[in-house]
Write a structure and sequence with these properties.
By secondary structure, this protein is of the alpha/beta class. The protein is built from eight helices and 14 strands. It has helices spanning 2-5, 18-29, 64-67, 107-116, 129-134, 207-211, 240-250, 270-280, and strands spanning 36-41, 44-49, 52-56, 94-96, 121-123, 142-143, 150-153, 156-162, 184-190, 193-197, 217-221, 254-258, 285-286, 294-295. A seven-stranded mixed sheet has the order 6-5-4-3-2-1-14, with no helix packed on it. Strand 10 (193-197), helix 6 and strand 11 (217-221) form a beta-alpha-beta unit. The radius of gyration is 18 Å and the shape is globular.
Length: 305
């Protein structure tokens, strides 16, 4: 079953464009005296700042549909090609995983990244340790984030906070037996920039207090729906309105919406987000990033120079 789970069948129309991939890799490898965020598609991002080159939840293939053949057509397939192939993405200082669902923790992507980045640090919840070892990572490469403990990753600092993604009818944080949680989000400091990557989560009671006045940019899922027996695969995520309210109440200036377009099973929420932010939180900037796009597009906002 393990071999079947990690089998790779690639659709030729979803391969990275060679010219676009070369341009993306050149942009990623350029010096980063100020922080940059490169979009990988789905919930995946790549962070650059000085020596730090960190990917979070990279999904750079099209393997989910191959592992779920009974899904409706398009339900688990990519809608857009990745900006580059995982085997071409070298120079990483760390790979960071929020939780074990396949569009965040993709075995074939991670195996290729490991081969292209021997010895790279892999940060992930403790419950994923055995799967990471099966993929070829050594115990010395693994870091398991303890709740609210700071981890130094070269020129970045990472801090894990609980996420609440499952069960679908009442998502809640699930502590593990190692001081962390099964599903997490991450606060990262990259010099002057403070970023929150939510992973997949609903807004649980303590989350606002954990984020308030501590975040400049938030990467937030926006495709949440109230759980329904008619849609049992809709696992817990914040809705577009909830994401906007969380950002507004926490004082977050920029929102990068994710988890709303890459897969057929997670589509929706963007139009609602744009209308709701314009009406309720006009001071929030919504940065729309497709695979390969970068933020900020023209240098860091002046107040962060």
């Amino acid at each position: 079953m393990k071999l079947l789970r990690w089998a790779v069948v690639r659709r030729p129309d979803l391969q990275p464009d060679p010219a676009a991939s070369a341009a993306f890799l050149a942009q990623v490898r350029a010096d980063a005296p100020t922080p940059r965020i490169h979009a990988l598609g789905g919930s995946g991002i790549l962070l650059r700042y000085r020596s730090a080159c960190i990917v979070i939840d990279p999904y750079l293939l099209n393997t989910l549909g191959d592992r779920d053949p009974g899904a409706p057509p398009g339900w688990r397939d990519r809608n857009l090609p990745p900006p580059t192939a995982p085997g071409d993405l070298s120079g990483l200082s760390a790979i960071v995983i929020t939780h074990g669902h396949g569009d965040h923790f993709d075995g074939p992507t991670l195996r290729a990244l490991q081969a292209a980045n021997p010895g790279v640090t892999l940060v992930l919840p403790h419950v994923l340790k055995e799967e990471a070892l099966e993929l070829g990572f050594s115990p010395g490469q693994l870091q398991h984030p303890v709740n609210l403990r700071r981890h130094d990753l070269q020129d970045a600092v990472l801090l894990a906070i609980p996420a609440a993604h499952t069960p679908p009818e009442q998502p809640q944080p699930h502590p593990d037996d190692a001081g962390g949680h099964h599903e997490v989000g991450y606060l990262l400091e990259l010099g002057p920039l403070k970023l929150y990557h939510a992973g997949d989560t609903v807004v649980y009671p303590e989350l606002l207090e954990l984020l308030k006045d501590r975040v400049d940019v938030a990467v937030l899922p926006i495709n949440g729906r109230r759980w329904s027996p008619l849609q049992p695969l809709r696992l817990g995520n914040m809705t577009a309105e909830e994401a906007a309210d969380l950002a507004g109440l926490a004082g977050i200036r920029t929102v990068i919406p994710v988890h709303h377009v890459l897969l057929g099973s997670s589509a929706g929420g963007l139009e609602t987000l744009m209308h709701y932010v314009a009406e309720r939180w006009p001071d929030i900037t919504v940065a729309l990033l497709g695979p390969g796009d970068v933020w900020p597009a023209r240098g860091l906002p002046q107040e962060w120079d």
